Structures are given as C-alpha cells and as structure tokens.
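Now for my pick.
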Amino acid sequence: MIDWIPIDQWVECAKMERAGIVFEVRNAKGQTLLTACMPEMPKAPFDWTGPPIEFRPVPERPAKHSSPLPGPS
C-alpha cells in the first residue's frame, strides 16, 4: 500500500490514474471515502467532522452481485 499524500497535492491524482485504481481520501478523524480522480476534490460527506487531509491510490474493489429479489407473495 502506498503512503498517504497531502491533500494539497490532489491535482497530482491524474498522474496516478490507472484502470482498477480509485483514491481513498481521509480526514483527521480517520473517516475515509473512495473516489475517482476529479479536477477538484469531491465534496466531503455530510457526516464528516473535518476536511480531508490526505489521499492515496488503492485498488478498486470488485463488484459484488446482490441477492435476487424475492418473488411476490
């Protein structure tokens, strides 16, 4: 796993973009979110208690199939 990168270097994410890679963003409280590289930092979730401070590229998790919906009763 790569070391955390200061959020002020977010514009560098474009150089790290690869297929199967997303970016994990973390704030000082340890809250994280996964996002694609965007020109501007995505808006923090409503429940975050502080601004993002660092990020790192991580492998994208494979998609999971959901369970089928139950039939009508």
